Amino acid sequence: MLQRKKQRTCRKITDKSDLFDGLPDDLVISILCKLSSSASSPSDFINVLLTCKRLNRLGLHPLVLSKAGPKALAVKAQRWSDSAHRFLKHCVNAGNIEACYTLGMIRFYCLQNRGSGASLMAKAAIKSHAPALYSLAVIQFNGSGGSKNDKDLRAGVALCARAAFLGHVDALRELGHCLQDGYGVRQNITEGRRLLIQANARELASSLNYAVKRQPQQQHQRRVNDQPHDNCTAGSECPLLSDFGCNVPSPEGQPVNMFLKQWFESKASELGQGLRLCSHNGCGRPETRAHEFRRCSVCGTVNYCSRGCQALDWKLRHKLECGPIERWLEDGGNVGGGGAGGLEEVGEAEELAI
Predict the structure, then answer these.
(1) Is the predicted pLDDT of residue 31 greater than 80, yes or no?
(2) What is the DSSP letter of 80?
(3) Fewer CB atoms inside 10 A, N or C side of the chain?
């Protein structure tokens, strides 16, 4: 009698496992493609691969890896390892453009493999990946990975223009400042200001869209905590678009920029002596040589990899910390562009009015 019960139980278990084993590979790969593109974190995808040998084998199929989205590739700096590096390389070999950009940034700035990193970013840029185009523009503006003589302002402007055409807000803002200042391109103040307004408008639309998506979650959290609604909760909102008199949520940081910031904050030894990080909290780019980034011409205490980062950091934080600006305003000084100071080359005293 006991033997019969054991046989029936074994048959049930076998039948259940056969239901999955009987699914065709194409169907499982299609499901995994959807998972990899919509995963909210790398663990969501990796945990599925650890379920069984078949899922592990099919999860590493080139088609699945080619569909992996930015959040599925958002490896934390504290969890960086050889296996994480191999996973990103598999995604690159599968033709994943986002992986090319992510691994390119990590190799260029963190692992200091400049040639390979720039090559991967260029591979993504060729496929019209806007963040890769903008990152290459920043490299050209600063001559990153080389000497000061390696700066190519015209190439930086061209890359920014391409990224801006594809809808990249930071590139659009950078291009506006270049035109307004005559930096790497013939000066056109009117066109530069038009692009800056357009960048702010796109940023406003993006921020409001993000706020609408986040609102149900905030309402649920308030009901759980039984707290009154407050639009000015510290850390939840900031005067990012003060030019329009709007308080909107801070923009969500890009995963690879957060990786750079975490990498150099947790591994201070990785940043060479005398080198600094971009002062904009959402950037994370480090200098590749001393005095590579330009500093604020008013206080001289902060430095930025680009004019776009300076403009964002001014609205987010620096306008409350830039000490001399209050004295300038009292003396009747005229500072344009929303009150932000200019940038100057360290050692050259080259000022760029914003």
Answers:
(1) yes
(2) -
(3) N
